[in-house]
Design goal:
By secondary structure, this protein is an all-beta fold. Helix content is 0%, strand content 38%. β13 and β14 (157-163) form a beta hairpin. The two termini are 30 Å apart.
Length: 352
């Protein structure tokens, strides 16, 4: 898969039980801190969209965004799936990201706290800030490249939550988290050859075979665990591995399910696709607004909604993870729109 050029690197309900959440006060919110950079020249937002192999990428949770600083916010509902982006600029608590879609490439501004953190190295989770990683072989570990959400910060430690086949929550050193990382392809459960144990979402894995033991993980979207050994009173020692995490602990089917923090994926809140009325040529330039800056281009000949604006300008609306986004397009006529895609970066146009 192609990655994207980084022209300017921006810093870039169950029974009562002990939990991993701290009782100490949190001195900082969970949002990442804005890195400090020396003065630097302005970026070229079109060149920043050029594909390159081997570049680092970031992941963004859909939410309010703007095509330019101070511009009209994009309020369309987004889905719950992380969006692959590249950080190309920053301003205070905002980041500018390049968005690579199949049909268009463009940049926009959004809040930095919408970025997922990326685990830099394999890391065992701790129950609190300071490094307590569990008892004996019981553990929850994240692998390099896993995407997590920051929840809180204390000293040099950050509380995070991972949501996948399993959900795990705990603390890791700040140095283990970044805003970007190499392309990371998720691969599902790794079979171990051991007998499998089928559980339902909400099954809680604990660090000891007793109901009041600390919670290590909760089954979120999976059903199968590997059996290590059967124990008394309905407990089973289990393990689980995939490309994002490794977990070992104890589960009981006799206990009520735990809480899972599922992403908001209400079907009623999903974006409604546009109703296109014309096709525009590959490479057609996308502007932030009428008489605004160039911020992207169309990839391949694409069906869009095109409407007249001022003389020589049009409103071009296309689909996105945020829902329909209205850009501006410039040209003498609907069939003669300006192009700005760098040579060789998009298919040759066929549409007039």
């Amino acid at each position: 898969m192609k990655c994207w050029a980084l022209v300017v690197l921006a810093a870039c309900g169950g029974p009562p039980a002990a939990t991993t959440r701290p009782t100490t006060s949190i001195t900082d919110p969970g949002a990442p801190r804005s890195p400090v950079h020396p003065e630097r020249p302005p970026i070229d937002p079109i060149a920043a969209l050029t594909p390159v192999a081997g570049g680092e990428v970031s992941w963004l949770a859909p939410g309010q965004a703007r095509l330019e600083l101070g511009g009209t916010p994009i309020e369309n509902p987004g889905g719950g799936k992380p969006i692959e982006v590249v950080i190309i600029d920053q301003h205070a608590s905002r980041v500018r990201v390049a968005v690579p879609l199949e049909h268009a490439r463009f940049s926009l501004w959004t809040d930095r706290n919408r970025l997922f953190a990326v685990v830099r190295k394999d890391q065992r989770m701790s129950r609190g800030p300071g490094g307590d990683g569990g008892r004996g072989d019981a553990h929850a570990s994240l692998r390099a490249g896993a995407r997590v959400k920051r929840l809180a910060h204390k000293g040099t430690w950050t509380q995070i939550r991972y949501h996948g086949a399993l959900e795990i929550e705990g603390w890791v050193p700040d140095a283990m988290l970044g805003e970007s990382g190499p392309q990371h392809e998720y691969r599902g459960r790794f079979p171990s050859g051991r007998r499998t144990l089928m559980v339902t979402p909400g099954a809680v894995i604990r660090d000891e075979p007793r109901w009041a033991a600390d919670e290590i993980a909760v089954m979120a979207n999976g059903y199968f665990l590997d059996t290590q050994r059967e124990l008394e009173d309905g407990w089973t020692e289990v393990s689980y591995e995939d490309s994002d995490l490794s977990v070992r602990g104890f589960v009981s089917k006799r206990l009520p399910p735990g809480q899972v923090h599922r992403p908001n994926a209400d079907p009623a809140a999903q974006p409604v696709p546009i109703t296109p009325n014309t096709k525009v040529a590959s490479g057609t330039c996308l502007y932030s607004r009428v008489k605004g800056d160039k911020i992207g281009y169309i990839v391949g000949d694409r069906a869009v909604d095109l409407a007249d604006a001022e003389i020589g300008w049009f409103t071009l609306t296309t689909d996105s993870p945020w829902g329909p986004i209205a850009f501006a397009a410039r040209g003498a006529t609907r069939t003669d729109l300006h192009a700005c895609a760098p040579a060789g970066t998009v298919p040759a146009p066929i549409a007039p």
